[in-house]
Amino acid sequence: MRYAYAITGALLLGGTAIAVTSSSNVGAQTAQNEGMQAAAPAGAPASLADMVEKLQPAVVNISTKQRVQVQNPFAGTPFGDLFGFGQGGGGGQPQTRQAQSLGSGFIISPDGYIVTNNHVVSAGAEGASVDSITVTLTNREEYSAKLVGRDPATDIAVLKIDAKKALPFVKFGDSTRARVGDWVVAIGNPFALSGTVTAGIISALHRGTGGTYDKFIQTDASINQGNSGGPMFDMNGNVIGINSQILSPSGGNVGIGFAIPSEQAAPIVDTLRKGQSVKRGYLGIQITPLGEDMADSLGLAKNRGEFVQGVEPGKGADKAGIKAGDVIVSVAGQEVTPDQNLSSIVANQAIGARVPIVIIRNGQRQNVTAIVGERPPEDQLNSFAPQDDDELGQQNSQPDNGQAAQKSLGISAIPLTPGIIRQLGIPADTRGIAITAVDASTDAGAKGLRRGDVIISANNRPVASQAELDAAVKQVSSQGRAAILLQVLRRGQPPIFLPVRLRDK
Length: 505
Fold this sequence. Notes:
Elements: H1 2-23, H2 49-55, E1 59-70, E2 95-107, E3 113-116, E4 128-136, E5 142-144, E6 146-151, E7 156-160, E8 183-188, E9 196-207, E10 216-219, E11 231-233, E12 239-246, E13 257-261, H3 262-273, E14 281-282, E15 285-289, H4 292-298, E16 306-311, H5 316-319, E17 327-331, E18 334-335, H6 342-347, E19 354-361, E20 364-371, E21 373-374, H7 378-384, H8 402-405, E22 411-415, H9 418-424, E23 433-438, H10 443-446, E24 454-458, E25 461-462, H11 466-478, E26 483-489, E27 496-501
Antiparallel strand pairs: 1-2, 1-4, 2-3, 3-7, 4-5, 6-7, 8-9, 8-11, 9-10, 10-13, 11-12, 12-13, 14-21, 15-16, 16-17, 17-18, 17-19, 19-20, 22-23, 23-24, 24-25, 24-26, 26-27
């Protein structure tokens, strides 16, 4: 037993001795990351530190103080005077509360002109007003800012601060040279964390998010709440975008941010800086993108041009001979595409300019010349457009109808008579057929056609009976098209064109 223990002890001691001997060689080895430096991606520096150090002082924090009218949710109840509501004899009257907003901006001149987003310096709610705007530099100096001008349509605003010294500033670059995959840097104040720098690449160009003049640069550089109004820099340190929006289900960065390109922002900033309002060209037309259904109904390629739904009397398009049902494919030599939409092209034309326009009418290309007018205020434009809450093309559930199910397109209709016209409340000279039922399982039902709507034309030809509608469907089908273009009138609205897909055979 004693011998066995002795052997065991020798083995343990020997193992310890071996371990100690092995550890003495660690110092001769090197760590995996010792002296390593990753190669910089093509077009990007090994470090952004030098560039950021120069640019960061020109990026500012912008905060506003606002007054918000708050309704008493307990008005008329025993709790009406709780939580400060009704103090001072106010009873159930609205009370004023203080609010703040935070964002970013950047200085564009040594005398203190600053660019930011309009929504950064605007009241955040209905009934709110902005009392003051404060700009804070990276050295923590604070200045009271004056709003020089704003353009809500593109979400751009220009501020001015008065400093006793020349301020660091940055200049706009040329975003037209930007390419998908280029490296960019964003500097701003996300979540009130001042002076935050993020980097990434350009993910897409000419990205639209639903606005009339959207031409955003999309990036995966982290952009969050508070980055709004801050600059997006290229690798030469030039501002090629104004960080404006994010797409996020959670409210935080998911790698999809949008910046207003400098090619769009710079002219607007120059105009606002001069104290002038932004004026845009206008033709007086209501338009619809040439999507798949509309293109199929016309036998044209999709996303090449925009469809004219209506023409405002007396405006440039009307005087040039453009009519509802035309497709505008080119203005002033610029092709109309989803990346270069018609509204943006026209808006950038000089007011009073004569511009050549190429249209397609009944499958034939025609050339016209229009004089560009000045775009009126948005409230006037809304009176020309159909109302959203009753607009054709909106989803509308409707029960199936056996009669309609047997008809072409799933639509059952009858000729108009003076009595039907009076009942529908439409102009007395209207010609067409009145829909009596729509099969909800068809595209016509899905696009909101309903009893009481009037079909004026099909495939750009007047219809006066169900038989003529069926014949138009057969003609379109024989031409290999998957949809037919209907012109539809609804009470209280101007006629619109609606592409309807043919029933499955």
